Every structure is written in structure tokens, then in C-alpha cells.
Amino acid sequence: MNINTKTRDLALIPLFSVLTAVCTWIMIPGPVPFTMQTFAVFASLLILGGKRGTAAVLVYILLGLIGLPFFSGFSAGPGVLFGPTGGYIIGFIAIGLIYMLVTGLFGERDRVKGAALVVGLAVCYLFGTLWFTRVYNGSTGPVTFTAALGMCVLPFVIPDLIKLTLAFWIARQVRRRLGQ
Predict the structure, then answer these.
(1) Cβ(28)–Cβ(52) below 8 Å
(2) What is the DSSP secondary-structure string of 76-135?
(3) Residues 98-122: pLDDT tens digits?
(4) What is the Cα gyration radius of the chain?
(5) Residue 144 — φ and ψ, nearest 5°?
(6) How far apart are CA 173 and CA 167, in angstroms?
(7) What letters, b where the CB count within 10 A reaches 16 and e where it falls short, cover 89-112?
(8) d(CA 73, CA 80)
(9) Residue ranges for the chain with pLDDT beneath 70
């Protein structure tokens, strides 16, 4: 790795961390409002690659953990990260790690990348839902895993798949312009 690559990484990783925060603040209204947070995670991985994209996700989470208002609704801190929905945020790390593993083993074809992101998203959903039921049951009252899936996952599956498709299209455009 030469000095230009290190400098580029030092610029791109925090840039994509901030992009994730900005996308988290973008709220799309609907019966169940959603943010563009997962879009930013997908775009980070598709544009930066597994290692740098995962690093951007980690930086995003750490900056939110220490108090920068990087999470949904301009929230921050351990209370958010360790609250009922924090498992989904932590699950973004799983998306990155699975993306790195799958593309490392099977290559960088679009089908491989897409499968890696879908599997990573499924693991994120699973981890987040398990986390939600554990924290919610401990603080608010009983909720079943099935009820948690209905509240926290099912309304977001279609929007997340649309965001994944959008991230692929934008990543292709960005990579083309960057000559990658």
C-alpha cells in the first residue's frame, strides 16, 4: 500500500461514515417511515469494497456511540446503541463482514456482491430482532420473536431491497467516474 492509497483511505472511510449519518437523517414518510441508512451501508461496501466499507461502518457506529448525533432522529450515545433497536445498527457490521468474506471467497461479480449483501442483511435482521426481543422484554414488556419480526423487519424488507438496487446503480456510476 503506497502513501496515496493510505491518504485516499483516510479520506474515504470518514467520508462514507458521515454519508451514512446523513442518510440516517433522511426520513422517507409512509405507514412505517424509514431512513436511507441501509442504502449508505450498501453503497459504502459496493464503492469502497469490503475492508474499507466495513471500516466506514465501524467508524460511523463508534462516532455515534461517543455522542455525535449520527443515529436516526439525530440521536447518539450508548443508550441508542444498547437500546431495543441498537442490534440492527450493530448488525451493519455483520453485513460488512459477510460481504468481505463472500466477495473474498467468490469474487467481485455483481451476483456475488448482491448475494453477500442480501445474506448480510438477513443476518442483520436476525441479530437485530433477537437483540430487540431481549432488550424489549427486559425493559418494556413481553414481545415474541414473531411479533418483533412483524414490527421491526417485515415493513422494511421491500424498502431495503429497493435501497440495495439503488446502491448498486449509484455505486456503478461512482466507480465508473473514479475509474475503478
Answers:
(1) no
(2) -SHHHHTSTTHHHHHHHHHHHHHHHHHHHHH-S-HHHHHHHHHHHHHHHHHHHHHHHHHH
(3) 999 999 999 999 999 999 999 999 9
(4) 16
(5) -85, 160
(6) 10
(7) bebbbbbbebbbebbeeeeeeeee
(8) 11
(9) 1-3, 180
**Domain-by-domain residue ranges, the chain?**
3-161
pLDDT computed for residue 164 by the predictor? 98
Backbone CA torsion sign across 135, 159, 64, 89: positive
Query: If we measure between CA atoms, which residue out of 74, 76, 93, 75 comes closest to residue 131?
Result: 93
Handedness of CA 144, 149, 152, 154 (dihedral sign): negative
Cell numbers describing residue 57: 461502518
One CATH from 3.40.50.920, 1.10.1760.20, 1.10.540.10, 1.10.238.10 for 3-161 = 1.10.1760.20
pLDDT of residue 179: 72
